[in-house]
């Protein structure tokens, strides 16, 4: 996850090069400096035959454009370059050391193919170099690299000898502005110098190192704060950490689903922040000074130590820190070194301070210190700068900001230098708006803005003027009439008018003389030709609750600049988290969310989960309706699912309609549960092998399963009874006790019948068959379309009852012959063993072309089956005698009754989902079988066969 | 689908004879409430409850099963996939205790081999109607090497403890105890970069 996008990096590197240079490989690696690893990209660049290794830092991770890469070091692969690699076997990284006379670079990369390739390329490059014939002094080689060397931050460090310029551990702020050579220098990197070893770089680095972690959470803090997509973020610990960010305003209100649970947790926690935090007062010192490019005076104590008690936080802003041309061009500034030193020296002597962060944009610099004792409670330190100068991009004007979270309160400090000149207040307003809208703390996703902080301090040379004639101003100053002056102040008036400029900001009354413009070194207002009107250019404003201003002063004793420094002291309410109460609130929220989640599970009510079907009869469907009510809060999707290893969700005689549906919340769905016993299921129910008992499992998607039990009793019927059993029954089947029925349905029951005993009489053929054939023989001989016209259901059921109960004894002649014909066919089809039993099926097919063999086969059938077969054949032959009247022909009857009497045990068409080719093959096989069945039948229908 | 908002998801299952109080135990644990009216569970229901254990947020998905005998065959199909099984009997009904071995056999046959088990003797608030001495419960649990607790959903005795103990037992043998690789890598990276 950590080493990513190698190809893309090479492409990005390519974009930073001139057309005749080519990046042949780039790799993500870690540079080891002072024992610390930081993310780098190493690239091998070729120009003709000369190679160089380029080390880049990343302004952001992942790098998306070439401007995200900042060149740090350039190492020509020449004769003086030494390269060594080691790959400790127990480690997953390999280390590469590149040494040139000027620079040493130690990088680490994973043991991987790209890394090996990278090493191979360097070796190749060295070989290439040694093969290039060198003429005379090799000093002037690699001229093309010079421009890059100058660009590289290593170069700038060594040449400028400015320890602040070296940017080792926070590459993110090494911003280069398009079209200019302007640089923002993150002076945080000053940690390397001996002077500032007490700063908070070590603390910050514990976050900084997380930044280039992995693609999906490239900036660790950002995930913590805003709930990254995949990462688990609302553990108590991380939430505690993230709470101080008042960016929760974009949290969505609880939606239909509980999907974005951590966001809801965060919102709930933010809402209840007061329950688990206490407001603690922190003293914050703010000071701002436009120093007019001067070096610091001996001591800044008069400005920076304004109270006997040490402030908790120092926020010091400078403008015009460095007016030299170099400050525009180079990232380093000797002035910065001096002022950093001076500020550090002037911190309150009664406390120990650590530097939180400092940031400089040309002449605008912000330094933030905090008392060392608060170290453990500060987090998410970030900074940004916005230039608003010439063309809106130059850094002579603009603003820099530092933000962090202290305990549970987010703080943002801005220092700005807005546009100058008496009449340019619209430009100042615009500068303010630009800084406000363009400042983005990019450690956050989406980047955090100034306005999203709990408390904001805005200090600096805001350059707002007093709209009064110079004489009036000066006379008011003499009288000490500051109030009259401030009333005409451009900023004050806008604040009073609640305009959009500095909306929400407050300012204390500046009970001091205007701080601009003095003749340097004096307390005299501008005596130059320009004769500028004195003004309150230097201001300190704040926004947010719980801020109490204690002092607001200027310090005219400090005379080096044309501005006087301004300072202010505040007591600021910081929300401090109480672990115990936080835990309680957190657990409470968890409970609420669980309840919410449980409430949002699909919920249904079923009006009847126990269905009893009474007296279910053959081919007579019974339906009961079950009402499924969606009593939950979301639509539910239900489906009857298979239980255990079943292939279907219910027994074949059972059916639910619909078996799958979606029910809106608060709506009911009626499900019809139908029990229907037909020829395919009757036999097993008759024999007692199966009972009318089943459990339907109604499954809710993402929810529970409900069971619906179905039970009932089946009215045994001669339909579905075996020939063996039927010929043993003397009376109608309903009069046979169930136990006896089960007994005679057992295989081989016939052989146990003792004919000699009382009642041991057997019918030749089942009397039911005889009754139907007899009816047809009587009434259907001359009827058209016999076996082709469907019968009536009610009549078929009547015939069933007549046969099963013996009432009436004979089928009434009022019934349609077609009903009887259909019942007759149904009867034959329902037989558990067809007229030609299953075991004879294949034999029948194979003997079908041979009369003798067919005859022999019929002879070998069990007696009752043989009798039934011959009986039916005789009846069919009888029908054929009347074919002139009933229109039946032998071909039709052969194929028709062939199928009824000759059935395979397992039908060929079992699965509907069979492939087309398979289906085709089966069809042809089926046709073949049908032909054979008909042929077999033909033997017995064409002639009377004597067996 | 919902985002993962937890470190781990544990599936627990409640089994035992009809009327021993499986649903009540679940209701007590999830909603901290008790309902005296007996409604037989006809099917399989579940509730979720998020707990923190060992610094991890664990989402428990607790499945409540129908205890009626006619559903036993069907309910066994829900055993598979559950990581912990609560086997509940009623201390005021000896029959439900006698069936424990049958339920244990069911677990052996149908549940994952490494499933964590726990035996609960519920309704321990009704000591006057007790038919199963605590010692008998302890004995059968010891015999099968399964943790045992007497609980009361009504009086809220040991309910939380029972579920937490079962979850803890599952957590203890969860490999690496971290299910989300992201987190794992995150920490690795952190340490790699913190160095020195």
UniProtKB/TrEMBL annotation, chain A:
InterPro entries reported for this sequence: Endo/exonu/phosph_ase_sf, Ig-like_fold, INPP5B_PH_dom, IP5, IPPc, OCRL-1_2_ASH, OCRL1/INPP5B_INPP5c, Rho_GTPase_activation_prot
Domain Rho-GAP, first and last residues per copy: 748-947
Family under the similarity heading: Belongs to the inositol 1,4,5-trisphosphate 5-phosphatase type II family.
SUPFAM superfamilies in the record: DNase I-like, GTPase activation domain, GAP
CDD domains assigned to the protein according to its UniProt record, in alphabetical order: INPP5c_INPP5B (cd09093), RhoGAP_OCRL1 (cd04380)
UniProt EC number: 3.1.3.36
This protein's record includes keyword Hydrolase: yes
Major enzyme class: hydrolase
Organism of derivation: Biomphalaria glabrata (Bloodfluke planorb)
Entry's localization field: Cytoplasmic vesicle, Phagosome membrane; Early endosome membrane
Protein name: phosphoinositide 5-phosphatase
Gene: LOC106080273
Automatic annotation (TrEMBL), chain B:
InterPro entries per the UniProt record, alphabetical: P-loop_NTPase, Small_GTP-bd, Small_GTPase, Small_GTPase_Rab
GO molecular function, one term: GTP binding
Places the protein is found: Endomembrane system
Keyword Cytoplasm (UniProt): no
Membrane topology: Lipid-anchor
SUPFAM superfamilies in UniProt: P-loop containing nucleoside triphosphate hydrolases
Pfam families the record matches: Ras (PF00071)
The keyword Disulfide bond appears for this protein: no
Entry's Gene Ontology cellular component terms: cytoplasm; endomembrane system
Keywords: GTP-binding, Lipoprotein, Membrane, Nucleotide-binding, Prenylation
NCBIfam families named among the record's database cross-references: small_GTP
UniProt record similarity statement: Belongs to the small GTPase superfamily. Rab family.
Name the record gives this protein: Ras-related protein Rab-10
Organism annotation: Biomphalaria pfeifferi
């Amino acid at each position: 996850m950590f080493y990513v996008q190698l190809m893309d990096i090479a492409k990005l590197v390519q974009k930073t090069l001139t057309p005749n240079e080519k990046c042949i490989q780039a790799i993500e690696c870690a540079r080891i400096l002072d024992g610390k690893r930081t993310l780098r990209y190493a690239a091998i660049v070729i120009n003709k035959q000369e190679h160089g290794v380029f080390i880049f830092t990343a302004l952001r991770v992942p790098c998306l454009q070439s401007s995200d890469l900042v060149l740090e070091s350039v190492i020509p692969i020449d004769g003086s370059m030494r390269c060594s690699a080691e790959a400790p076997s127990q480690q997953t990284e390999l280390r590469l050391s590149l040494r040139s006379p000027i620079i040493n670079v130690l990088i680490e990369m994973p043991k991987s193919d790209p890394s090996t390739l990278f090493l191979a390329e360097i070796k190749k490059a060295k070989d290439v170099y040694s093969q290039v014939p060198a003429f005379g002094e090799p000093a002037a080689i690699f001229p093309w690299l010079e421009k890059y060397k100058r660009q590289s931050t290593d170069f700038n460090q060594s040449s400028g000898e400015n320890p602040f310029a070296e940017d080792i551990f926070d590459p993110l702020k090494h911003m280069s502005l398009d079209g200019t050579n302007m640089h923002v220098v993150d002076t945080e990197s000053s940690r390397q110098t001996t002077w500032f070893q007490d700063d908070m770089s070590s603390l910050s680095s514990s976050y900084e190192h997380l930044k280039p972690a992995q693609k999906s959470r490239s900036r660790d803090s950002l995930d913590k704060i805003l709930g990254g997509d995949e990462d688990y973020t609302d553990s108590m610990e991380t939430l505690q950490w993230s709470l101080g960010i008042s960016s929760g305003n974009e949290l969505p209100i609880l939606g239909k689903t509980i999907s974005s649970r951590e966001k809801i947790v965060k919102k709930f926690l933010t809402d209840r922040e007061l329950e688990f935090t206490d407001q603690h007062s922190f003293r914050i010192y703010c000071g701002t000074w436009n120093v007019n490019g001067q070096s610091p005076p001996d001591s800044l104590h008069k400005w920076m130590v304004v109270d006997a008690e040490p402030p908790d936080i120092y926020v010091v802003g400078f403008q015009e820190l460095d007016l030299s041309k170099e400050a525009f061009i180079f990232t380093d500034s000797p002035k910065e070194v001096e002022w950093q030193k001076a500020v550090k020296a002037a911190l309150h002597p009664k406390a120990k301070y650590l530097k939180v962060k400092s940031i400089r944009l040309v002449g605008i610099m912000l330094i933030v210190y905090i008392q060392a004792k608060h170290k453990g409670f500060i987090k998410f330190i970030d900074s940004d700068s916005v230039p608003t100068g010439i063309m809106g991009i130059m850094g002579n004007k603009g603003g820099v900001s530092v933000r962090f979270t202290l305990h549970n309160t987010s703080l943002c400090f801005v220092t700005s230098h807005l546009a100058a000149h008496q009449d340019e207040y619209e430009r100042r307003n615009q500068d303010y708006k630009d800084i406000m809208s363009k400042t983005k703390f990019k450690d956050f996703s989406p980047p955090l803005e100034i306005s999203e902080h709990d408390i904001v301090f805005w200090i600096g040379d805001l350059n707002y003027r007093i709209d009064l004639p110079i004489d009036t101003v000066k006379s008011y100053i003499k009288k000490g009439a500051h109030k009259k002056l401030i009333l005409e102040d451009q900023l004050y008036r806008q604040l009073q008018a609640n305009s959009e400029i500095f909306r929400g900001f407050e300012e204390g009354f500046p009970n001091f003389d205007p701080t601009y413009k003095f003749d340097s070194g004096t307390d005299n207002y501008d005596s130059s030709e320009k004769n500028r009107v004195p003004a309150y250019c230097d201001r300190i404003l704040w926004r947010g609750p719980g801020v109490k201003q204690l002092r607001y002063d200027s310090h005219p004793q400090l005379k080096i600049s044309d501005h006087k420094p301004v300072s202010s002291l505040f007591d600021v309410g910081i929300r401090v988290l109480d672990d115990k109460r936080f835990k309680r609130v957190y657990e409470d929220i968890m409970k609420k969310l669980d309840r919410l989640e449980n409430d949002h599970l699909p919920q249904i009510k079923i009006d009847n989960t126990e269905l009893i079907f009474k007296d279910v009869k053959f081919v007579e469907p019974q339906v009961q309706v079950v009402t499924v009510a969606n009593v939950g809060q979301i639509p539910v999707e239900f489906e009857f699912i298979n239980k255990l290893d079943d292939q279907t969700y219910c027994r074949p005689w059972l059916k639910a309609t619909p078996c799958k549906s979606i029910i809106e919340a608060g709506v009911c769905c009626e499900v019809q549960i139908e029990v229907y016993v037909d020829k395919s299921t009757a036999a097993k129910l008759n024999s007692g092998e199966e009972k009318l008992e089943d459990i339907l499992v109604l499954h809710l998607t993402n929810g529970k399963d409900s069971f619906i039990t179905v039970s009932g009793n089946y009215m045994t019927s001669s339909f579905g009874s075996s020939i063996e059993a039927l010929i043993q029954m003397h009376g109608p089947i309903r009069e046979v006790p169930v136990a006896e029925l089960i007994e005679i349905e057992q295989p081989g029951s016939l052989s146990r019948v003792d004919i000699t005993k009382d009642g041991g009489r057997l019918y030749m053929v089942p009397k039911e068959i005889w009754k139907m054939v007899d009816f047809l023989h009587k009434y259907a001989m001359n009827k058209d379309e016999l076996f082709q016209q469907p019968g009536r259901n009610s009549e078929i059921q009547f015939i069933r009852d007549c046969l099963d109960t013996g009432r009436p004894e004979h089928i009434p002649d009022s019934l349609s012959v077609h009903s009887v014909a259909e019942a007759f066919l149904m009867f034959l089809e329902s037989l558990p063993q067809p007229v030609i039993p299953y075991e004879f099926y294949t034999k029948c097919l194979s003997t079908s072309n041979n009369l003798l063999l067919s005859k022999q086969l019929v002879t070998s059938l069990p007696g009752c089956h043989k009798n039934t077969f011959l009986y039916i054949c005789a009846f069919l032959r009888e029908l054929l005698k009347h074919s002139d009247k009933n229109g039946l022909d032998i071909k039709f009857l052969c194929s028709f009754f062939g199928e009824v009497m000759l059935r395979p045990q397992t039908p060929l068409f079992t699965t509907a989902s069979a492939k087309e080719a398979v289906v085709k093959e089966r069809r042809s096989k089926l046709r073949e079988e049908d032909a054979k069945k008909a042929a077999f039948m033909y033997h017995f229908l064409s002639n009377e066969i004597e067996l | 689908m919902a985002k993962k908002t937890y470190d781990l998801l544990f599936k627990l299952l409640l089994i035992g004879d009809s009327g021993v109080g499986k649903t009540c135990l679940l209701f007590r644990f999830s909603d901290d409430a008790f309902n005296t009216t007996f409604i037989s569970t006809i099917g399989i229901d579940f509730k979720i409850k998020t707990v923190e254990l060992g610094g991890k947020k664990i989402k428990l998905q607790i499945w409540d099963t129908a205890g009626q005998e006619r559903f036993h065959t069907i309910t066994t199909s829900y055993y598979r996939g559950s990581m912990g099984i609560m086997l509940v009997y009623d201390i005021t009904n000896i029959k439900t205790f006698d069936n424990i071995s049958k339920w244990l056999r069911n677990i052996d046959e149908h549940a994952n081999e490494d499933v964590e088990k726990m035996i609960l003797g519920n309704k321990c608030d009704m000591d006057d109607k007790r038919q199963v001495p605590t010692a008998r419960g302890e004995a059968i649990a010891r015999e099968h090497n399964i943790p045992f607790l007497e609980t009361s959903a009504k009086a809220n005795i040991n309910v939380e403890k029972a579920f937490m103990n079962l979850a803890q037992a599952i957590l203890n043998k969860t490999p690496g105890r971290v299910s989300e690789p992201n987190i794992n890598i995150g920490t690795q990276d952190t340490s790699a970069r913190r160095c020195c």
